[in-house]
Amino acid sequence: MGKTGVLLINLGTPDAPxxxxxxxxxxxxxxxxxxxxxxxLLWQPILRGPILLTRPRKSAHAYQQIWMxxxxxxxxxxxxxxxxxxxxxxxxxTIDWAMRYGNPSIGSRLGAMMAAGCDRILLAPLYPQYCxxxxxxxxxxxxxxxxxxxxxPAIRTLPPYYADPAYIEALRASTQVQLAALEFAPxxxxxxxxxMPERTRLLGDPYRDQxxxxxxxxxxxxxxxxxxxFQSRFGRAKWLGPATDDMLKAxxxxxxxxxxxxxxxxxxxxxxxxxxxxxRGKEEFIxxxxxxxAHLSCLNASPDAMTLYESLIRRELAGWLxxxxxxVTF
Length: 330
Prior knowledge:
By secondary structure, the chain is α/β, with parallel strands linked by helices. It contains 12 helices and 8 strands. The protein is 50% helix and 17% strand.
C-alpha cells in the first residue's frame, strides 16, 4: 500500500540574486504562453532582445535588497511551510514543495515523492485566487511531468480558496495582530493583489472577481474598509486597476496620511511584496506627502498559515487520509 503526498507549489525564484541567475529565471518565466499571451513567433525576439538584455540587471538589484541568508524569501517561506506542515500533520503524509519556474522544479519533486512511495498526490498551488497565469500553469507543468511517467500516481488538485472561511479567518487573525503591533493607526487598509492584463478578464479569467470577493469578505471580518488595488504592471497593455503605485501617490493629497498594505493574494513574501510594496511603495507614499506606511507580512509559514493549510489539505484528502489511518490500525 503506497503513501499519500502533498506538493505545495509556488511561482518561482532565481537561484541567486545575480544577473545571470535572474536572466535564466526570467527567460523561463516569460516564455510561458500562459504568462505572456502573445504568439511566440512575435514575442521571443522581443524577449531575447531588449527585455533579457536589460531587465535582469535591474531585477537582480531588486532581489539583492530582499535576499535572505537562506535564499529567496519565496523559497524560504514555502520550504518552511512544507516543513511546518510535515511536523504538524505527522508521518501519515509526505509533504514537499516545488516552484513552477526555477528550483526545485515540479517534475523533480514529483519524481522524488514517487520514489519515496507516494501513489496518491495532492497538487496544491498556493494561489488563493485562480488565474490561468498562476494556478493553471502550475498544474500544466505537473501534468507535463506526469505525461513522461509510465506508472502514474493518482492525482487530486487544490481548488482556489479565495472565499474559504479558513482563508478569511487566517487573513483576519494575521491582519489584526500586525495592525495591533503598529506604532500608528492606519487611516486606510489596502489589499494589493498582483495585476493581470485586462484582456485576461475579458477572456473569462475569474481572477479579478475572486480578488474583490476575498477583500469583501476580509473587510466584513475586520469590520473596516479594505480598498482593493493591483500591482506589478508590465508592458504597455491595459492592466487591472486601480494601480497600487498610483493609489499610494494619490492618497496623501486626499488627506490619507497613514496606510497599511497587505498582499493577500501572495501566500509568501517575495520580490513583489517586499521590494515592490514594503520598500518602493513606502518610498512613493512618503515622497508624496504620507506620514506613516506599513506593509503587513503574508501568511508565510506562520501558525495561521499552518491552520489554514491543514484545513484545506484535510478537506481535499478526504478518503485518502482515512485509508492511511486504517492501514496503520489494522
